[in-house]
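Something for you to look into today, if you have time. What I am after is a single protein written out in full by you. I want to see for myself how the chain folds. Could you add the entry underneath, on a fresh line?
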Amino acid sequence: MNERRNKVSKGKKSFLIYYDSKEVFDAMTDEEVGQLVNALLNYAKSGNLPSLNSSLNLVFLMMKKQIDRDAEKYTKVCEKNRENINKRWNTKNTTGKEGIPKIPPYTKHTDTDTDTDTDTDKDTDIRIYIDKFNLLFKKNFRITSARKKKLKIRLKEFSFEEVLKALEILHANPFYRGKNDRGWVADPDFLIRSDEQLDKFLNKSVAEKKPKNIRTWKEPSPQEKQNKEEMAKLRKRVLK
């Protein structure tokens, strides 16, 4: 059980679901929405991780990140306010007069601190990325330190939502799923190997183009298969 989460939940009676999650909810059934919301409520209150199917778990992990960030921010606000109150009552003559000193100006705006990613956030990012790649491409790639490092570098220039969007664009092109003359299939490193590579796939007009000098593999028709077999038989007779 997450001790930090329990500590936060005692003073925090709610959590936020943001409007940008609406598209995700719209794509789910009512039953899946119910399961997801219930899992988020349980996690926000107790820190317990749910047991969900692969698709729901990906959505949960993405929303869990925001809950963790909001909880961390809430904790910082409480700690800073507590510190300011202590300064107010324990310090004297800070205004040139005896009595209650001025409240530090940042007391009412302690929620404006820049929200930086923690190591835990980065671990969650790579887990979501690899899980989603494996789900889309039906593979079983693992999280490695090299992949974690590449994604961390990409996230300096791109948001995590942009990385997932680029992954969906990559998967939408049959070429990268093995429909080519070599049977080559993209791996998780292919997309995040450089900022330029990721930027190309965020540009649909580039991602949808077929790579130059490589023919796209096409399933032969039954007639084409029959013609090929007949030609093979004819060659055998000629060679005899």
Notes: Residues 1-8, 106-117 have pLDDT under 50 and may be disordered. Residues 62 and 128 are 7 Å apart (CA to CA).
